[in-house]
Amino acid sequence: MKTLVSQDKDFEDAIQYYCAASNNKIDAIVTRNTADFKNTQISIMAPEEALSLI
């Protein structure tokens, strides 16, 4: 429901964010499109950044 009433420009990004935010086991979203995720409570990482943590 939060996705439907959100002010996010990209509906698919909003779905990803709110699904991740509702699961306390998810620490970050990995995406090539980091610019679309602003003011989030979850870390947003580019794929290269996520791979460097392994």
Describe the structure.
The chain is an alpha+beta fold and 54 residues long. It has one domain (2-51). It is built from 3 helices and 2 strands; from the N terminus they run H-H-E-E-H. It has helices spanning 2-5, 11-21, 47-51, and strands at residues 28-30, 43-45. The chain has a two-stranded parallel sheet with strand order 1-2. The longest helix has 11 residues, at 11-21. The model has no long low-confidence stretch (mean pLDDT 88).
The helix-and-strand class reads alpha+beta
Distance between the termini: 34 Å
Stretches where pLDDT is under 50 for at least 5 consecutive residues are: none
Let me know the average pLDDT. Answer: 88
What spatial order of strands do you see in the largest sheet? 1-2
Oligomerization state:
single chain
Task: Write down the Rg.
Answer: 11 Å
Q: How many H/I helices?
A: 3
Q: Please report the total strand number as a whole number.
A: 2
Shape, per Cα inertia axes: globular
Return the string of H and E elements: HHEEH
Major β-sheet profile: 2 strands, parallel
Number of domains: 1
Strand content: 5-15%
Please supply descriptive tags for the structure shown above:
54 residues; two-stranded parallel ribbon; 3 helices; 2 strands; 11% strand
